[in-house]
Amino acid sequence: MLKGTLQTIILKLLDDNNQMYGYEITQKVKEITAGEMILTEGALYPALHKLEADGLLETSTEIVDGRARKYYKLTEQGGKEVTDKLNEAKAFIDQLQLLLNLKPALNKLSK
Amino acid sequence: MKLTAEELDWVKKRMDWYDIKFQEIYDEVADHIITGIEAARNGGDQRDIEKVFHTVVDNSFGGYLGIDRIVETYQKAFRQRMRRANYASYKFYFNRQTTLLLIFLLAFGFYLPANKITGMVLMGGLLLISLVPVVYAFINRVKIKTDKGKYSMLKNYIFSRAYLLLIFFAALLNSINILVKDFGLTFLKPAFYPAAVYMVLYYLFIVYGLSFIRLYKQTYKVASQ
Fold this sequence. Notes:
The complex is a heterodimer of chains A (111) and B (225).
Chain A: H1 5-17, E1 19-21, H2 22-32, H3 41-53, E2 57-64, E3 67-74, H4 76-110
Antiparallel strand pairs in A: 1-3, 2-3
Chain B: H1 5-15, H2 23-42, H3 49-61, H4 63-93, H5 96-110, H6 116-139, H7 153-181, H8 195-223
């Protein structure tokens, strides 16, 4: 996974689902990508905690089945950041697409 | 499928091996592991709890080191978050109104006589102001449930901030005492200070107290949601 995309994925998921807990996020990524992308907890939690420290996420704790469950949701600032991050990701994918499509053409030119 | 009480007890005992001191991160990791085990059970994995536990921990967290890394990054992120919140609170109170307060205090101090009694009264006032954060934190304390041997990172942080002003005040008095008695620097006796010095200290102590109360309210508002 490219650096920075994990944060975009988390922000987008939370934008779509209001609030989620860690395990739920990993399962959602697995479900959406039909198991092609596995989000490890070793990467997920540091990213969640960083986003929280940056003020993009806020947390709340609920007691579920007798144990504390921490939910993450977007702050107002986080909500604004989603659009920016998605635009950045789209621009990057467009550039990548352009580069990859150009490659065969460049090969032909060099021959 | 929910785990049995015995299985939950086993998981909790096993998790003690990881030596996670702080309740907040312990709860998050424990919930993740237990949810993972429940999902594995729902998926048909009926092996012994020990085996399922290790599968979940190894696959999800990359074993012991993975959990250790998460705890470390959590602490770092927590400190960063609190630093930002602290800075925002100070910034909020270093404003036009408190600048006016400083001017008023300085003007008031100008009319105060510079003698021993004034010095003692003003010093007593500083002591009272430095007690405000501690008293506020105790009166409004929010009960954060922690397991045996675990601490709340949030509570530890808030109470360390509550005591900071009092500790600073005590250290200041102690340093002055040493300098006056052991080094003979009698001009440092609080009775000789112009009232303006006290007024600046009053201003700084008041701003700290107000910032602390704001930080406390915001932090516990978020924590108790």
